[in-house]
Write a structure and sequence with these properties.
The chain has 256 residues and is of the alpha/beta class. The chain is 46% helix and 12% strand. It contains nine helices and six strands, in the order βαβαβαβαβαβαααα. The protein is globular. The relative contact order is 0.14. It comes from Pholiota conissans. It holds the Pfam family adh_short.
Length: 256
């Protein structure tokens, strides 16, 4: 675990869905990778425990709570002692509260979404910034959503105001990180329509049918397929080509 030449990854929100699939894909694709898989209760995810058992010494299950500064700092300190750097941080942990128009959505839903989806990645970046700077090829990638695109709001007419506003704010944060850190590859990445628990819950909550109509027009991928594409994009990304851009899963660009 003290191999300083290893590619060190941290995946936030790794217990299910896209985060879980990213951990599996990175471990399988990169034999030199050591992946820290973070979640509130990582040992409570049988699938993540299985991945950890499959890649002993290369997939480490760690407790991660979004926006918890002390926990984030302690985790960064632990990784620093073992490796002295981190190469790729994937801010994937997120929540989506009840669907609804702005006038129908209680303020608490916005507060929860902003805490996890915006403040969480900010605290994560603050904790890991020095470790990223010690990497020869540092990347900070935030998993975003088309629901956060202001320019595409008319094309994605879903009533997801608390989730969408938090993702729009996340996009701003990551683009600002790009401009403030000239040594870093940083960008928000939309994974497209993925068949996760969060996606299913969102479709179930949407009484308007708008979300179902949007998804009919998209390719609904399984998490493993989406993870393969996302990891390929990450590993081929450069600051000049990709930094500060809002990626879609087809490696094109979304409107902000």
């Amino acid at each position: 675990m003290s191999n300083s030449s290893a590619n060190i990854y941290f995946v936030a929100g790794a217990t299910r869905g896209i985060g879980l699939a990213l951990v599996a894909e990175i471990a399988a694709k990169d034999p030199s990778a050591i992946v820290y898989a973070g979640g509130r209760n990582p040992s409570g995810s049988p699938q993540l425990v299985e991945i950890g058992s499959k890649y002993p010494g290369r997939v480490e299950l760690v407790k991660y709570v979004s926006a918890h500064k002390e926990g984030n700092d302690a985790l960064a300190k632990e990784i620093s002692k073992k490796h002295g750097h981190i190469d790729t941080v994937i801010a994937n942990a997120a929540i989506a509260k009840s669907a609804g128009k702005i006038h129908e959505t209680i303020s608490g839903n916005y507060e929860e979404c902003f805490s996890v989806n915006v403040v969480g990645p900010i605290v994560l970046f603050q904790a890991f910034r020095d470790l990223l700077k010690a990497s020869a090829l540092p990347r900070f990638v935030a998993i975003s959503s088309g629901a956060g695109s202001i320019g595409m709001m008319d094309m994605i007419p879903m009533d997801t105001s608390s989730y969408g506003t938090s993702k729009a704010a996340l996009n701003w944060v990551v683009r600002k990180i790009h401009f403030e850190n000239e040594w870093l590859i940083a960008y928000p990445q939309c994974p497209g329509a993925v068949d996760t628990d969060m996606s299913k819950q969102g479709r179930a909550r949407d009484t308007t049918g708008k979300m179902a109509e949007v998804i009919k027009q998209l390719t609904l991928r399984q998490p493993a397929e989406a993870a393969r594409i996302l990891v390929n994009i990450m590993q081929e990304s450069t600051r000049e080509k990709d930094g500060g851009q809002f990626h879609n899963i087809d490696n094109g660009r979304y409107l902000w």
